[in-house]
Structure formats: C-alpha cells, structure tokens
Write a sequence for this structure.
C-alpha cells in the first residue's frame, strides 16, 4: 500500500474514533432510510419490462373473417403505417373482431405514440356498423396475470346462469379495476338465436338468403351471437338473445311497399333460442370442490403493461370479497400475508357461487 493511501486510511480511522456520535448518527440514518425503502418496495413476480406494444381492437357485428381483414384490419394498418417509432405491425382477423398489433422501438414515448395512433384512427374511414377502434395497452397473446374459476355450489344453478353472471356482472366490474387491461371469459354455456331459413318459402317470395341477411343487418337489431342456417350452411349473425325480444325479429319486414306484398322474417324462417355449440369446456378441482373436477366458467385477467401484478391481484381480490375478509385471511396466513389470497366465496357479488384460483 502506497504512502498517500495509507495516510487516508489513518485519517478515516481517526475520524471514526474521535467522533463516535456523528458516525453513529450516520449509520442510524442509513438503517432508517433502508428500512423505510424496504417497506415501500413493491413486491413483483418479474422485473418490470414494459414492452412498447399497443393493440388496436375493433368489433364489426355480423362480419366474417374475410370481411374483417379487407374492411377493417387492412384499412387500419394502412392508416397507422407511418406512426413515428413503429417497427412492426401485424393483424389477427377473426369473426366480428380485428386485432392489429403494433410493436414500437425501445425508448419510444408510448403516451405520445398512443396519441399519434388515436389521431390517425379518428381520421380513418371505416364502413357503417364498424365500432370505434379501441387502443389497448397489452398484447392479446400474453399470459394472464390471474385466472379465476367460477362454479356453482348448488345443483339448480346452471352453466348458462354462471356464464351470464360472469359476462354481465363480474367482467364489467373487474375491467374497471386499476391495473386491469382486459378480462377474458370462457367456458360455461351461452344462448344464441338461430334463424333457419326455409328455402321453399324464400323461392315463393323470390328472395335470397343474402337479401334476408342484409335486411337484418341493416335493421341494426340489438344483438348477441347467433347464426343463419340454410341448406346445411351457417352464416354468422348477431341478434338479441333474450326471449322477450325474438318478437322483434319475427315481425321484421324483409320486403314491402306499394308494388310488392309485405313479407316478414317469420314468413320465410324459423326463429328459436337455443344453447350455443360449446367449443370450450373448463373444469376445476381443488379444496373448494373436494378435489372433484367440476365444470365452471374461467375468467382470465390481463394486467396493463406497467401495472404491478401483486397490487393488481390485491385489488381484484378486494373487489370480489371485500377488504375486511381480505385482511382477515391475510392475518391467518402469517408470514405469507404479503401475497393476496385467491380462494374463497364472493358473498354479496354472487350468492351460492364460488371461485377457485
């Protein structure tokens, strides 16, 4: 060790021994600030990596995938192609929905990028019937932050009621929570209105299936998922899915006027409500079901890109069960109290309905 460095070390030792109170105060300050910082340090599952991605989601009622691609996805891609910082874009076109995925360069100001995208979308000319595009701050392909399983605790509660409860009550409420980007619902049973065209009656009135389809779409009937079937072929349709509103469809005028006889939809089609064909079955087995597999409804909660997963889970749990029960279970868990409990029964939110996660 050289003489200058040895001299500095001696002076440091001398300061520590001659001013013990000052040194003690400095050490105490470091300890206090460290404790406060540790207490406020958020718990997270993974390091915070905010990918510079945006998703533009657009709904177009009664549109087939090819129409979605031509009339929505391509139109949006052309409009936002020159947004500053945009590196790559891709799209997913499915029945009634378009997702345009935007990937920006690292370091891009995402608030400004969102504003630029919104400005270009506002000037886009889309077909009548296309809903206003939504800008989402997440990638639809990412894994959900939380998965919640909803199942009935009574035999007289049907899968149809469970799905309606999830779609009409839980999904809107959970979507409002700070940090939640979207809620996906799958499983259970759904209703649909099925319109079966009678080919003989169509020929008698000199009508085609396309004319009927266009007339229903032009009527802008308030709608849910449905289909038209003719000669073994199904055409996607969106019509209201409640019993008291099928009368609106039955009395819908297909053609009429001074020079032509009035033809109603019920004159050329059979209209009925039935259970939608189920393409997804979800089952849950855990302590809540006695480890017996039980069918239910799955809710997948996606968090926003910059949201803390633990805090988001806590807010979801409190929204479902209430803060008092949340704190009670935290106390029961002891050392694991920092992690939000995700099992229980949601009391006021839905009697005789339970959830496992």
């Amino acid at each position: 060790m050289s003489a200058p460095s040895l001299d500095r070390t001696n002076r440091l030792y001398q300061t520590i021994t001659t001013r013990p109170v000052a040194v003690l105060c400095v050490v105490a300050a470091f300890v206090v600030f460290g404790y406060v910082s540790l207490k406020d340090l958020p718990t997270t599952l993974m390091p915070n990596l905010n990918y510079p991605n945006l998703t533009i989601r657009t709904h177009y009622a009664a549109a087939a995938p090819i129409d979605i691609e031509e009339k929505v996805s391509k139109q949006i891609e052309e409009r936002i192609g020159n947004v500053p910082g945009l590196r790559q874009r891709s799209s997913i076109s499915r029945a009634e929905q378009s997702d345009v995925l935007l990937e920006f360069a690292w370091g891009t100001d995402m608030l400004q990028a969102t504003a630029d995208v919104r400005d270009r979308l506002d000037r886009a000319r889309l077909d009548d019937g296309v809903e206003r595009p939504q800008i989402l701050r997440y990638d639809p392909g990412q894994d959900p932050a939380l998965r919640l399983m909803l199942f009935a605790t009574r035999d007289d509660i049907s899968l149809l009621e469970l799905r309606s409860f999830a779609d009409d009550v839980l999904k809107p409420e959970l979507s409002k929570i700070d940090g939640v980007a979207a809620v996906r619902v799958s499983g259970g049973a759904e209703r649909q209105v099925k319109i079966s065209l009678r080919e003989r009656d169509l020929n008698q009135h000199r009508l085609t299936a396309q004319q009927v389809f266009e007339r229903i779409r032009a009527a802008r009937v308030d709608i849910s998922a449905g289909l038209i079937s003719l000669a073994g072929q199904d055409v996607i349709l969106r019509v209201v899915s409640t019993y008291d509103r099928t009368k609106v469809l039955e009395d819908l005028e297909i053609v009429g006027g001074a020079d032509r006889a009035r033809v109603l939809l019920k004159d050329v089609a059979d209209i009925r409500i039935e259970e939608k064909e189920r393409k997804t079955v979800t089952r849950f087995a855990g302590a809540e079901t006695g480890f017996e597999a039980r069918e239910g409804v799955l809710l997948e909660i996606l968090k926003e890109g910059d949201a803390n997963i633990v805090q988001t889970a806590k807010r979801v749990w409190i929204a479902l069960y209430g803060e008092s029960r949340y704190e009670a279970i935290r106390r029961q868990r002891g050392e694991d109290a920092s992690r939000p409990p995700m099992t229980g029964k949601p009391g006021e939110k839905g009697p005789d309905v339970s959830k496992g996660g």
